[in-house]
Write a structure and sequence with these properties.
Length: 410
């Protein structure tokens, strides 16, 4: 599947550039200035218009959600990948979705200078997602124990419409639609529909020491080699994240990033690794020191297929490498962080469901559990390279190298 292409301009020299939608760290090919792209409440995009009367156009918002949908039942976890969009207005006469249309177009980021009138979303992203999910569900299905959506948490797409007498005009193609203009659209105020910026270009410099931040184009966590710090976006700023690396791997190890997340859990005794061993009914008796070791969730900090995501999270949560972690940055052979910690937190109940035993008690136990993430850090773990896989010997897990390579656009 292919992602969107975004047409943008360098904030320093104004040179036009095209981006893949997953690119965050962008180097201008002309002035070489590096910028890191952040969206305060997710990114906002415009579909291009062919219309010459841009100032008269009405931009209708559509929520976009892309990523993995998980649904946990007693029998197991189902998952599917989806890349969908759904209208954010309550007007039923307008197209409910833009379908695959954005894929074939060069989109732009929304800027406050954009011409036209931008309608604010009336439905929340949550409402739009519930509407989408309810269409997927079959009526006879048993209730779900828990669900999770992991991926691009929020994005808003604006589609341009023109008004041509009593009919609406598709301003992307500059063609009339056979849809009558809803009267609500005509009574909208002309002013006060100014857009907010859909993207901010931050200079890719360490906020602490001013050194160049490094990372691959898709990286959501950047590293400063000068003061050995790691940075992630928070709103429109960069904020420091505590990061560490596991020692003792092979010299040629490849490092994969994980979020180590400490939580306050209610409705279940799960404060230590010893309690985890009992909750998961692990075959070996818990070691004495496990009763002192705080329980942490381990979640991949990168996009990967659903099966691998859950498998990795479960294996590392049950067999963490906590004792080997030291504050340091990974070497150049590492995979970038491509999944934000907020998204990783969405999966915690699902991971808990994957190891709780006995299974027959799962519905009642899950229903009683409340998980509040309290602290997190970034941990890079060493994987050994083989012909087809990356292998973590202690946790006894493997990641297929092809699958990892193909997961960038999930
Ligand atoms: Zn430039
Ligand atoms: Zn620095």
């Amino acid at each position: 599947m292919s992602g969107w292409r975004i047409e943008t301009a360098c904030p320093q020299c104004g040179a036009p550039t095209d981006l893949e939608e997953t690119e965050r760290l962008v180097t201008c090919p002309f002035c070489r200035v590096k910028s890191f792209l952040v969206g305060r409440d997710g990114f906002r995009y415009l579909l291009p218009s062919k219309s010459t009367r841009r100032q008269d156009l009405l931009y209708v918002p559509y929520w976009r959600f892309k990523g993995l949908f998980f649904a946990c039942r007693q029998a197991g976890v189902e998952h599917r990948f989806a890349d969908v969009n759904e209208i954010a207005l309550a007007l039923s006469s307008l197209p409910r979705t833009l379908g695959l249309r954005p894929q074939g177009l060069r989109l732009r980021f929304l800027t406050p200078q954009a011409e036209g009138r931008f309608l604010p979303p009336e439905r929340s992203l949550g409402d739009a997602m519930t509407a989408f999910l309810s269409r997927l569900r079959k009526p006879h299905e048993r209730p779900l124990l828990c669900t999770a959506h992991i991926g691009e948490s929020m994005g808003l797409l604006y589609a341009p419409y023109g008004i041509d007498g009593p009919f609406l005009l598709d301003a992307v193609l500059d063609r009339p639609l056979s849809i009558r203009t809803p009267p609500e659209l005509l009574s909208l105020p002309v002013d006060d529909l100014r857009p907010a910026a859909g993207v901010t270009f931050l200079p890719a410099l360490c906020p602490d020491c001013g050194w160049d931040l490094e990372g691959s184009p898709q990286a959501l966590a950047l590293h400063c080699r000068s003061c050995q710090s790691s940075w992630i976006p928070s709103g429109e700023r960069l904020t420091q994240v505590s990061s560490c690396c596991a020692t003792g791997g092979d010299p040629g190890s490849f490092f994969l990033p994980f979020w180590e997340i400490g939580c306050e859990l209610r409705g279940i005794e799960l404060r230590t690794r010893g309690e985890l061993a009992r909750a998961a009914n692990l075959p070996a008796a818990p070691r004495k020191e496990w009763e002192e070791e705080p329980f942490r969730f381990w979640v991949p900090a990168f996009k990967i297929r659903a099966e691998n995501f859950l498998q990795l999270a479960k294996a590392l949560t049950l067999h963490p490498l906590t004792g080997r972690l030291e504050p340091s940055l990974p070497g150049p052979r590492h995979h970038p962080v491509t999944l934000p910690v907020e998204e990783a937190c969405e999966s915690l109940k699902l991971i808990l469901a994957a190891f709780l035993r006995p299974r027959r008690d799962l519905p009642e136990r899950l229903a009683a559990v409340e998980i509040r993430p309290e602290r997190f850090r970034l941990a890079y773990l060493p994987f050994r390279e083989t012909a087809h896989d990356w292998i973590q010997p202690e946790a006894k897990i493997a990641v297929n190298r092809n699958i990892l390579g193909l997961s960038a656009n999930l």
